[in-house]
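Notebook, student rotation project (T.W.).
Task set for the rotation: take a protein with a known small-molecule partner, predict the structure of the complex, and write up what can be learned from the model alone. Partner molecule chosen: fe (ii) ion. Sequence and SMILES entered below by T.W., checked by me.
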Amino acid sequence: MAHQSIDLKKEQQYSLNMPKYKYSLISKMFFFGMDVIAGKKDDLPKAKLLEILASIPYRVWEIRHYMKQTRKYKNTDIVQISANIINWGRHAQDNEYTHLLVIHEKMKEDGIKDKWYLSSFATFFFVVFYVVTARLLAFFSQKRAFLFNAEFEKHAEQVYARLVEDNPQWEKQKLTNPFVKTYADVETWSDVFRRISLDERDHMNQSFEFAGKPEQVVKYQGMPESYYKR
Ligand SMILES: [Fe+2]
Ligand SMILES: [Fe+2]
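Predicted structure of the complex:
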């Protein structure tokens, strides 16, 4: 995707001042649970936990829809819809995993230690819980699963926009890490996290579209319509 014409600072301001969105009860409960585990304040370890969970729904849907494609191989429409979900899901889960690695690099650079909830013992339980939730949601309603994910991604977009605001020192920290440069070839760490925030917006937009709520899609300033066509 061509991101050259995106004004990262402007989009961050939009994320921070987004019109209020009415989150569903399940999302509110999930965010509350995250606050109880990782504290109310957003920081890098908490974002790490978010990223550990973020790829899970995409992986669950990918497997589900591969199975569906096999069951319904005679129905080309169903096969195509599943193919769209699989292709998107594969891209999105790789993207979420890259976010995890980028946060890890930043924490290493700053000497920030993992918190208790990032131990492999603790994350095991969070991951199992989230896998079960994602599977149940997709089993009962794939649409509802997309909607919950859209809300998760909207929340994530705002978390990163706020992180940049809360860490003004990132503005002066030049990006030298070669791996992170391959993710986003930008000048400062602030812009790296602004870019992550917009990746979450992309995930949200696509989730809303798959959930049948295209009116919730948040467009970028000055981007052509073709950008939003899948
Ligand atoms: Fe992410
Ligand atoms: Fe995401």
